[in-house]
Amino acid sequence: MSAASPATSIPSAVDTAPRKVRRRNAALGLIAWLVGILFVLPVLWMALTSLHSEADAATNPPSLAAPLTLDGYREFFGAGGGPSPWFSLANSVTASVVSTAFVLLLALPAAYALSIRPVKKWTDVLFFFLSTKMLPVVAGLLPIYLFAKSTGTLDNIWLLVILYTSMNLPIAVWMMQSFLSEIPTALIEAAQIDGARLPVILTRVVAPIAMPGIAATSLICFIFSWNEMLFARVLTGVIAQTAPVFLTGFITSQGLFLAKVCAASLVISLPVLAAGFAAQDKLVQGLSLGAVK
Fold first, then answer.
1. Where do the CATH 1.10.3720.10 domains begin and end in the chain?
2. What is the pTM of this model?
């Protein structure tokens, strides 16, 4: 009897541990679902409100069973005689895509110098890049406005391109340095032994390996540029007006603008959502590679 007791207690202890793991995983999965639903609900609410009439969208409490209509989308696209959004959307695409391309062109060599071939006091350099993001954006608004006014670049889309490039470059260098530090230096040295110069190493060795990190960095820079509104609101008027500034034009003192604003917000968010969906694999790989360490 005394020899059989330990033998019967071992399986029960072995079964308890997986059961605890399953319960913990189930609890974490439930929390993840609740957080996901919490984030998705406002988007679903915005989509439903965009399909209501202005009178139904302004009711309190909201009417879920109200008739659906596409009037909000028709007014956003100028079917009712209003301004067309295509020019503002084109300005947003230009400012976001071109500034993101400039950021990548500048951030990749800088990150290479800070990770694979570190310069002296490279940690101080990284801190300097990060410290530039600590300045409140509004603190630089007046000097930049006065500079743009004196140089005649107000309401010019290329001023926004330069601003967005300078604003996103520090965080891009920070992220790219983290990604490039994961590349084995033996690959770089092998390419150098074969006679490859720096441009060839960057384009044919470093860039393919760091592609998930480059995709994650470019997507984040694109989102920051696309959603930026403070500088675009102050520095642009009619010619260089971006999509977020165009969206604010639907807000009036009459109060019946909720459906139009929801429709405009949904349409303006589609490029960012499409870019995120298309690059979701690269984005997850890139963020798990080093950006969140």
1. 85-291
2. 0.80
